[in-house]
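Technical appendix A lists one of the benchmark inputs used to test multi-chain prediction within the project. The record comprises two sequence entries:
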Amino acid sequence: MPPIGVDEWVARSGERTEGHAGPLAPVLRRLERIPPWAWLAIAAGAAALFPLLTDSAFALRVGVNALLLAMLALGLNVVVGWAGLLDLGYIAFYGFGAYAFALVSSDQLGEDGVHLPAWISIPAIMVAAAVLGLLLGLPSRRLVGDYLAIVTLFFGQVFVELVVNLDRVRLPGADEPISLTGGPNGIPGVDPISVLGTEIITPRGYFYLLLVLTVLLMAGLHLLDRSRTGRAWRAVREDALAASFMTIPVNGVKLMAFAFGAAIAALAGSVFAAVQAGVFPQSFETPFLILIYAALILGGAGSIAGAVLGAVVVSVTLELLRDPDQASVLFYGVVLLTLVARLRPWKLLAAVLGATVALGLVTHGAAGAISPDLTAGEPALGGWTGGALDAWLVLPENAATAGNWAFVALVCGVLATTLLAPRLRPLAIVPLVYVAAFAWEARLVGQPAITRQLLLGALLVVMMTWRAHGLLGSRRVEVL
Amino acid sequence: MDFFVQQVVNGLTLGGVYALIALGYSLVYGVLKLLNFAHGDVYMVGAFIGFGVLTAFGGPASLAAPVPLVLLAMFVAAALGSGVLGVVIERFAYRPLRDATRIAPLITALGVSFFLQNAVLLLLGADVRTYDTSAFIPVTTAVDVGPLSISLVRILVIVAAAALMVALARLVGRTKLGRAMRAVAFDREAAQMMGVDIDRTIVATFFIGSALAGVAGVLVGLVFLQVSHLMGFIAGLKGFTAAVIGGIGSVPGAMLGGLLIGMAESFTAAYISSTFQNLIVFGILITVMLVRPVGLLGTPELNKV
């Protein structure tokens, strides 16, 4: 606490402005001087090399998904990061773009279907989405933050419900009800996007298309961020009342943020429909919304580079979790890295690691002596690390129930540890690591789908409490 | 006419449940100005705790104890379990963010909700559990009101919900804790200067709100039989809608809003189409917000600078 009579914000201003320290300081200062467009060129160049290095369709699909998520995070960043409006119906615009594109590029409508060229349909869809965004934003004229969140959340629900139920629509003048959205089955057979007369059908092609779109979007958003509108958004986010005294049209500015976010989401949705060659309602439900939020929050709301970085990290991590072997490497790697990063000095780190290894060996020996069944299970990891793990961890076969209890114990343990005095925490870490490894091997690794979602949920909570400005965002202070 | 009265009873049942959920939302929002998205999932956990107690007593078909005792045990366990869960969520997810930017706790709440949903999915699986109430409260034990027969379970729900609401209204209006809650809701800093223990008041608020949600979970299980890990999301949303329509932060408003939503839903399902149930609720919400943003019984807040 600062001394009495000194404002906390003023007292801590030095902390915020101080430069880098330590041996890396000159390098960091040099890095800071590189202009944003150079960073963008470097990142885009590196990303453009990616399809040349791999031939696997799976890796390319992961890249395509990462770029789609990046575009969505960029759009969400406009609404949430810049304008500070919690939009929980964002995913509906993504769905709107996808469905609208599917309708005008497939056999769904009429006798032979409608097949508009993408360079006409996508801009039209983006404009339509922006108008829809304006309409949705209208309640925000009277609603402050939280009410807006709930209205938009409902809007997202309504979208999915409409899409699932609009499969028998009787248009005026028509005899037979037609299927507008295909109901739960979605719309199959969506045309690919053509660029300059060539149809894009390979994942590699879509990767490059999305890369170009993302780079253009990042550049455009960078300019927008520095424009009058960008400044107005931030002003409204920080204090709408003060902003209105500065003659900023608060409502108009909010609506504009909604429209921009909606248009970007619709763009991503259109490309998504073409990539998948079809649209299905499940793609637009709440879990995916959480995923976009997780990407944006991890990267840092308010930062363009952060949104893209967060999207890439989140989507690649989640793909790795699908495979038990890679997932295990990732899990133990993260646990180990966290310990190395958080435990200082190195003597403490060595003691904790040593104690963890010793605890495992002793427990394993004791359990093996009681009954060989207790150690009959095999860890998911192969190779020598798997062997070492097998000798360390007590793991019966079919330990799902025990794994459940271990998961509960792990959550409770982690929460309790945050309450301990800092000097006692290392003592708690030793058993926690062991319990975590057990819960992982006995339960989590076998349920990759649930584990992904658990991690996303936990990520949101942990990031907000520990580092609310994300990896690349700048720290915000709300003046009350 | 019978059909109409039947819908009124359905609406009352549904409305009672929504009102209980709405009360939790309203209490927390009043005190913390926080939209607790995880509230619906606390309600879901309550429903599962009730189911667990039911199973522990030997399952619906072969109860090892008298039925009222089992019901009481289910309510108490669900209320306590959910209450403690709510307090834990407050302590670890919301308290660190009490002075953070306004959007931060909302995102955290979203994360907590998602985490709870999937933790239950991991621990209990995706199977829908069935309370099978008719096995221990026979459908035949209905109360005849004129030409109408109302099943005992529905009466239980309506009475329990009404009793809890009255108790809560008295708690907020007449006790020292209630006064503290109102003071914190009005102005947290000023309340602190007047010697109100903020942390304790907030913890108590979370406990009471979450316990009500837990009871609501058991009631829903008893009437609508099925509980699953996904039930919390939509119910929480509607509970919140009820709270907003009534005027968030207002206890009678939450009750009114709950009843309104319940009635609207049951009549939509009966006379229009069950597909559009959620759309109608949404429509009511939007209309109320556009016409009267503070809700039916809410009082407009002055904008302090």
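The CA atoms of residues 128 and 263 of chain A lie 8 Å apart. Chain A has 20 helices and six strands. Comparable benchmark entries are summarised in Table A2.
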